Amino acid sequence: MTSDARDWSPFALCAPGVPAPAPRSVATPDGVADRLRAAAFAELQAREAFLYAAEAFSDAPDELRRAWRALAEAEDRHLGWLLGRMKALGLDPGARPVSGRLWEGLMACRSAEEFEVLIAKAEERGRLAGERFRVAMKGADPESAEVFGRIADEEVAHVALARRFYPERAAAEALP
């Protein structure tokens, strides 16, 4: 399945192979909007990918499939927090295009292990970004900073799944 085969509303998707516009300065309202939008779309992709993986990968242990379904619920909660913050700020999620590259990469995975490690790497990148935004936005937009911080705190458990189920591969990929 490709990113253009799904309805990603309310987001506007870049054409395949076209990167999303570079985010504007985090010190500006437009830059905060860019981060909220990109993070919300990443959470939506992750939610859909965890649900997909729980059904698609027959090589996944049942316990991992249950964990993926639970993580889909967490990603949905994160998406709600981000979209709620955007609504409070009067921001349109579709105002700037976002990239479906994460989804495309996840859909190219051929095994539960490959999927778990790839999504754990994406979750770790998101966690690190959330930590940076928690600090960078604190003065200008403490509410958005707090949302990013809460999400970053929860992402730790998401990344830990790869170490738990595929420790050798997680170590080889230098996952924390």
What does this structure look like?
The structure is a single chain. The protein has 176 residues and is an all-alpha fold. It has a single domain, classed as Ferritin, core subunit, four-helix bundle (Ferritin), CATH 1.20.1260.10. It is built from 6 helices and no strands. Helix 1 packs antiparallel against helix 4, helix 2 packs antiparallel against helix 5 and helix 4 packs antiparallel against helix 5. The model has no long low-confidence stretch (mean pLDDT 94).
Strand percent estimate: under 5%
What is the number of helical segments per DSSP (H or I, 4+ residues)?
Answer: 6
Quick one: overall form?
Answer: globular
Average pLDDT: 94
Helix content: 55-70%
Order of helices and strands: HHHHHH
**Radius of gyration, Cα only, in angstroms?**
16 Å
Count of the separate structural domains: 1
- If you consult CATH, what is the topology? Ferritin
The CATH superfamily is known as Ferritin, core subunit, four-helix bundle
CATH class: Mainly Alpha
Major sheet size, sense and barrel closure: none
| Unreliable stretches covering 5 or more consecutive residues | none
How many angstroms separate the termini? 30 Å
Annotation, overall tally of beta strands: 0
CATH architecture grouping: Up-down Bundle
- Class inferred from helices and paired strands: mainly alpha
